[in-house]
């Protein structure tokens, strides 16, 4: 990895890593009586570890190859590995917390392993750890290939990738220590948030600078989705995390947003995190890897442009549907509801575009589990966006809100759409990146596919059942006008569904573990494919410049 | 200048609609503009090309 860096770039990397380690020392000193001190030590070890890796090959030979003649794939490879590691961690935590709901003794009477602390390690682990690393890796791949330009930096891709993972480590370890802002999907505290701003702005600049190097006159639509993902996540993250720490030596901070405005900002953030982190970026994957795998161009390029702008402009207004029947002004709730329903149009346009691309290649979908991953993802995308629009309608929400139906909906999206499109993309990307003919085992891809589908369906059906039962039990009145069931009655009724959901999650986790093994064996064992068409484009090929 | 809550709500409820409609028309014009056809066709086919190296000066 370091062999591809010049000695001045190694110096630069060493300075960056040392600066991070020193910042960790400062945090450890200032926060010595606070949990902030623990995080200082973690930052110090992280920065120090990277500095040590850089130093071990600091005086290695300079890179001899002409680096501009090839794409920069090293950070992508590391990103894929990190993504799969986080997938296994995040999904394991998910299975654990799901099992805790059925068998509360699995918390083992410790503070760090209580449900409230473990649950955000699951959400952060899968959304940011698994999803985020996969997005960074695939966006680096897609932007280079579609622009036919090498990444516009040598050290900055590493800074983005490793810096993002430092944020994830701080977030997850913080939850176990009891550090939280109590904002869903934005639990990490002020210092981790500030760090993420630096990393994310670097990511955006790197992406724009790479696109600026392109030879193609038109920017391929997948890049639009990735750029929307990077830009909007930066805006959301900064605005939702505006907070004042109680002192520089404490982890605790207070948000600057008061009362109902805090709730509105949080769910404007929360829903757009779904929209731009979990949808826009993964649509970028869909619009590149699905056509490439199917060897067919996207059905309608115009439709992909229309649905892009539809998604970007509609999603921005949908967040208030999380706050139906609250102190939020009624018209704001109605606005969120209306935009959520309208969102169905661009969402189904993308899902339909993906499925119509496969029209005429159904035999490939039947034979190739990788392509089937992406086909199933498009189907789940269509289903869960329909469900989401439906649940945002205020009277429907009165039944579904606060119940497991919401959890089921989120997982139809997260397992069925986000994870399936990611696995499909990774199974397409891994052989081409490591220059292998195919994955180590097509059978294991097949096994992974069916475990993932079975796990998702068991999970989602269990949560639909339990959610609707909960919703109905909470609104059933006796003839005297009293509630017919206590909350504990509804909890007891959930028991079989909680077991089913933990089992569904377990199947999904086993699939991911098999995927890790398959990727590892592809990297390690399969012989190199013949390197065809792997020569640089000569200047004569681009006349008129 | 003193904006009341009602003023801002009235502004967003009316002009919000017009700017969305205007934006929609712009996007449609861009997507269906005849001259963009070749550019889009080229873009959607270009990702299927086999060559796996960047362009060079």
Offer a quick outline of the entry:
Chain A has helices at 7-30, 35-56, 74-102, 115-147, 156-177, 190-212, 221-240, 259-294, 301-315, 330-342, 344-358, 362-367, 369-391, 394-400, 404-433, 442-474, 487-493, 495-524; strands at 243-245, 253-255.
Q: Could you describe the 3D structure shown?
A:
The complex is a heterodimer of chains A (545) and B (57). Chain A is an all-alpha fold. Chain A folds into two domains: 1-59; 72-477 and 485-526, Up-down Bundle (Cytochrome C Oxidase, Chain A). Helix content of chain A is 71%, strand content 1%. A two-stranded antiparallel sheet of chain A has the order 1-2. In chain A, strand 1 (243-245) and strand 2 form a beta hairpin. Chain A is globular, with a radius of gyration of 24 Å. Chain A starts with 6 loop residues before the first helix and ends in a 21-residue tail after the last helix. Chain B is mostly helical. Chain B has helices spanning 5-32, 37-46. The longest helix of chain B is centred in the N-terminal third of the chain and has 28 residues, at 5-32. Chain B starts with a helix and ends in an 11-residue tail after the last helix. Classes of the chains: A mainly alpha (545), B mainly alpha (57). The interface between A and B is medium-sized, with 41 and 27 residues.
